[in-house]
Structure formats: structure tokens, C-alpha cells
Design brief:
6 helices, elongated, 171 residues
């Protein structure tokens, strides 16, 4: 395979990693591209062990992204209902924030949505004082941010893993 096509492939994977920052499933887009690469490029060095590790990193990214938000919200005193409201708020916030600032608004939308969903559930459903709800919402915000950072880092690891396997093939 030519070096040009390998570079284009790696750049496409890099764009997929950036999709994680706007709360899109960038790691799963990378999985799809790598599967396509394996099917279209004869004699590549992507074997079963590579795919086990690669898909494992994608799964870990999803688990950490949502698990960190749950952990943060619970650590700061959120109830189960408010924690799930924060997760739903993060998804809704990302969707509504996506059209702003060339997609970067999804990051802020997800963070604000996690905070707002948790806060509103604590105040409206659990009838907690605003100070208690604010603290729980802080946890949802911090956990969501931590999850996004770790998922992005795992996406970068997936990119590095793939680059280390496909680049020698191009030479």
C-alpha cells in the first residue's frame, strides 16, 4: 500500500479521535475504519490479537466515559435518579450544543447537560436544597469531564497502536 494512502488513513483515524471531544463515538468510527482497512488492504499485519486489544480499548473508553460520570456524581452525593438524569442531560446537551462553535459546543453542552440534569433531578424530584443539588451536580460535571478526557486518551492509544501496525506495511 502506498505511503500516501497510509497517511490518509492515519489522518482519518486522527479525525475520529477528535470526534470523541464532541461526544460522538469516535473510537467506534476508528474500529469501523480499521476493519475496512483490514478487508481492503491485502497482507496487512492486523491480526486477531490486535483486534482484541483494539476493541477492548474502545469498550473501555465507553465504560470509563459513563462510569466516571456515575462515580463523580455518586461521590458528590447524587442519588441514583439524579445520576441517570445527569447522563441523559449530558447526551441531550451534546446534541443541542453540537451546532455551535463548529461542533465544539457539544463538549460544553455535554458538561452543562450533565450538571443541569443532575441538579434539576435533585431539586425537582428529590426536593433537595439547592446547595446539596449544586454539590451533586458538580460531581456529575467533574466525572463527565474526567470520562471525556480518558476516552480521548484511549482513542489516542488506539491511533498509536494502529499506526505502529500499518506504517511499516507502507514502507
Amino acid at each position: 500500500m502506498s505511503i500516501f494512502l497510509t497517511v490518509v488513513f492515519l489522518v482519518a483515524l486522527g479525525i475520529c479521535v477528535l470526534l470523541n471531544l464532541v461526544t460522538l463515538p469516535g473510537n467506534w468510527a476508528m474500529v469501523a475504519l480499521v476493519v475496512a482497512w483490514t478487508l481492503l488492504v491485502p497482507g496487512n499485519s492486523l491480526g486477531p490479537l490486535f483486534f482484541v486489544l483494539f476493541i477492548g480499548l474502545a469498550v473501555a473508553g465507553e465504560l470509563v466515559e459513563f462510569g466516571a460520570q456515575i462515580w463523580g456524581a455518586r461521590k458528590y452525593g447524587s442519588s441514583r435518579v439524579s445520576t441517570w438524569a445527569g447522563i441523559i442531560g449530558a447526551i441531550v446537551g451534546a446534541v443541542f450544543g453540537a451546532p455551535f462553535m463548529f461542533g465544539v459546543g457539544a463538549v460544553f453542552g455535554a458538561l452543562f447537560g450533565a450538571w443541569a440534569g443532575c441538579f434539576l433531578a435533585e431539586v425537582l424530584i428529590r426536593r433537595q436544597p439547592s446547595a446539596v443539588a449544586f454539590r451533586a451536580a458538580q460531581g456529575a460535571f467533574v466525572g463527565r469531564f474526567l470520562g471525556m478526557v480518558v476516552k480521548f486518551g484511549l482513542g489516542m492509544a488506539m491511533l498509536a497502536l494502529t499506526a505502529s501496525h500499518v506504517w511499516p506495511d507502507a514502507l
